[in-house]
From TrEMBL:
<dbReference type="InterPro" id="IPR036249">
    <property type="entry name" value="Thioredoxin-like_sf"/>
</dbReference>
<dbReference type="GO" id="GO:0016491">
    <property type="term" value="F:oxidoreductase activity"/>
</dbReference>
<dbReference type="Pfam" id="PF08534">
    <property type="entry name" value="Redoxin"/>
</dbReference>
<protein>
    <recommendedName>
        <fullName>Thioredoxin domain-containing protein</fullName>
    </recommendedName>
</protein>
<dbReference type="GO" id="GO:0017004">
    <property type="term" value="P:cytochrome complex assembly"/>
</dbReference>
<keyword id="KW-0201">Cytochrome c-type biogenesis</keyword>
<keyword id="KW-0676">Redox-active center</keyword>
<dbReference type="InterPro" id="IPR017937">
    <property type="entry name" value="Thioredoxin_CS"/>
</dbReference>
<feature type="domain" description="Thioredoxin">
    <location>
        <begin position="159"/>
        <end position="307"/>
    </location>
</feature>
<dbReference type="InterPro" id="IPR013766">
    <property type="entry name" value="Thioredoxin_domain"/>
</dbReference>
<dbReference type="InterPro" id="IPR013740">
    <property type="entry name" value="Redoxin"/>
</dbReference>
<dbReference type="InterPro" id="IPR050553">
    <property type="entry name" value="Thioredoxin_ResA/DsbE_sf"/>
</dbReference>
<dbReference type="GO" id="GO:0030313">
    <property type="term" value="C:cell envelope"/>
</dbReference>
């Protein structure tokens, strides 16, 4: 078991439970004043307090490396509650919130990996010894300048267009993936050249499309500057993407530093640094073409749209004099691409009974499809591709770009999403919404018998070989339902009437013969039957002509 957790950036985390009042806490910590640290109140964890009445505190050494301690002040009335760290979410400080509280002990020390219990007096001595050890260890490292931080501070200061790169930017080592291998190096080797940093991730389709284009010509420009993709993704993910996409570009991987110099709310996120070491532009991926990159590497001034920072806590285009927390009803619908703004969607935190959703620079078809999924989910159903129907509509209309920012009081989420569909209908001139139709289909039912539908648990697995076998483990039943609809199996729409809501394990040999398929399904306690059912659908169609026109 580890006595503390180190997050890879020089920060150490401990979990402490202290069943005394706040005054006793301050007096006890104050006894350690020979060691230079201060006690500061810390904001509550974003997941909420672990226990009712708990507070969070931070002890910070007067040094560039610091120790975070989370002190949980516990009301004794909750002393018998048990919290299992394996079931708790990971918080944004890298620790897992979990506390086991023995009934007859007044002090529990918890670190990643397990529990230890001490008497109060023994624990206070342990804390003082640990802080003493950490302080002296840091003191020995004083002659070595901290890398990746701004001088005189314990955090990286974000950079904006027009800022000069600090010396720490050049000295920090980064992990590069190059030619199928990894190597650590600084960016100092590129000092004096123009640099373009392109932040990406494996799940970001626009990022991969843009990287694919740059990959075809970047090597021709390398004499005048350098193009560097940057991701926080780990080696295995990057290897998979590079192999699938056929990329040859070197990329910074597992990044934790460059992202702090250039924080972002969305990707793609492109940082243009001139040969003088000044941040010239921060854009999305659109200016990344051969002409712009070639001119920039040669020292030319570019006229490109700067990426607009999106404050997720403030409605788009809301006057800065308005307190965003006072807004309970707000509607903004913009047609056409908003230059400099990312393609983004997010949900704000709002009071109960008020719902919020923001979509920026998204195609109309993608907006309708996302809202359809939300409406099906509100009905407790899963939407399949066959449930989303488009009439004879010009594709150009469905590819038009829209931005929506909605804050609205509604009775339910379903009412809210229906309202968003109505707004899109008004803006686009189309008629979209939930409907129903009668279909010849297959019905999935549970068989009466000894076979129990369910899963053995464990890690989720989805292996589909359409020329052989299908193996699913610990997956939702609708995932299996969608596979059964494939033309290489039933080729028909399937209605789930099992009433089962949990996960399942499933093993099948691929066959289009329904009788053979049912023989295999019977081993799972399932059966498919021909039937006619009314099914829910989402349709997009042209509005009916006005009789008076």
């Amino acid at each position: 078991m580890k006595d503390f957790y180190e997050d890879g950036r020089g920060q150490f985390f401990l979990k402490l439970l202290f069943s005394k009042d706040k005054g006793a806490l301050y007096r006890s910590v104050g006894a350690a004043r020979p060691f230079p640290f201060v006690l500061e109140q810390k904001e509550p964890n974003t997941h909420g307090p672990i226990l009712p009445g708990s507070d969070y505190f931070k002890i910070r050494l007067h040094n560039k490396k610091f120790l975070l301690l989370s002190w949980q002040l516990l009301k004794m009335s909750h002393a018998n509650r048990v919290y299992d760290p394996r079931k708790e979410k990971q918080n944004n400080r890298g620790c897992i919130d979990g506390i086991h509280i023995p009934k007859d002990l007044n002090f529990t020390f918890w670190a990643l990996g397990g529990f230890r219990t001490y008497s109060l007096q023994a624990m206070m001595y342990s804390i003082l010894l640990f802080v003493s050890f950490l302080f002296h260890s840091v003191a020995l490292a004083q002659s070595r300048q901290d890398i990746g931080t701004v001088a005189g501070a314990n955090r990286i200061v974000p950079l904006r267009a027009g800022d000069k790169l600090p010396e720490e930017f050049w000295k920090q080592e980064y992990l590069f993936y190059r030619n199928g291998d990894t190597v650590r190096q600084t960016l100092d080797v590129y000092r004096g050249k123009a640099i373009i940093l392109d932040f990406w991730a494996q799940w970001c389709t626009p990022c991969l499309v843009s990287l694919g284009k740059v990959n075809t010509f970047a090597h021709q420009l390398s004499g005048n500057g350098v193009f560097i993709p940057v991701t926080s993704d780990k080696l295995t993910s990057v290897q998979s993407v590079w192999k699938k996409q056929g990329f040859t570009l070197p990329s910074v991987i597992g990044d934790t530093i460059l992202g702090q110099f250039f924080p972002r709310a969305s990707i793609p996120h492109v940082v243009w640094i001139d040969a003088e070491g000044t941040v010239a532009h921060i854009t999305n991926q659109q200016p990344l073409d051969e002409s712009n990159m070639s001119d920039f590497f040669k020292g030319a001034e570019l006229e490109v749209a700067q990426k607009t920072a999106v404050d997720k806590n403030r409605p788009l285009l809301l006057d800065t004099r308005v307190d965003p927390s006072s807004v309970e009803n707000y509607q903004l619908v913009l047609k056409g691409k908003q230059e400099g703004m990312p393609m983004l969607k997010f949900t704000r935190s709002t009071p109960q009974g008020v719902f919020s959703k923001t979509y920026i620079n998204r195609p109309l078809l993608l907006l309708y499809k996302g809202l359809a999924y939300d409406l099906f989910y509100g009905l407790g159903q899963t939407m399949f591709e066959k449930d989303f129907q488009i009439a004879d509509i010009d594709p150009a209309i469905l590819n038009e770009i829209y931005t929506l920012d909605i804050i609205s009081p509604s009775n339910t989420e379903a009412t809210f999403y229906s309202h968003l569909v109505d707004l899109l209908n008004t803006a686009s001139g189309l008629e979209a919404g939930m409907d129903s139709e009668q279909r010849q289909c297959l019905v999935l039912k549970k068989l009466n018998g000894d076979v129990v539908l369910g899963t053995a648990g464990g890690e989720r697995l989805r292996q589909v070989d359409w020329n052989g076998h299908i193996d699913l483990r610990n997956l939702p039943l609708p995932s299996f339902q969608g596979i059964l609809m494939d033309d290489r199996l039933t080729g028909k729409y399937i209605v789930n009437e099992t009433g089962y809501k949990g996960n399942i394990d499933a093993q099948l040999t691929v066959t289009s013969d329904l009788a053979e398929l049912n023989r295999q399904l019977a081993k799972m306690g399932l059966q498919l039957e021909e039937a006619i059912r009314d099914v829910t659908i989402f349709t997009i169609k042209k509005p009916k002509p006005n009789e008076h026109e």
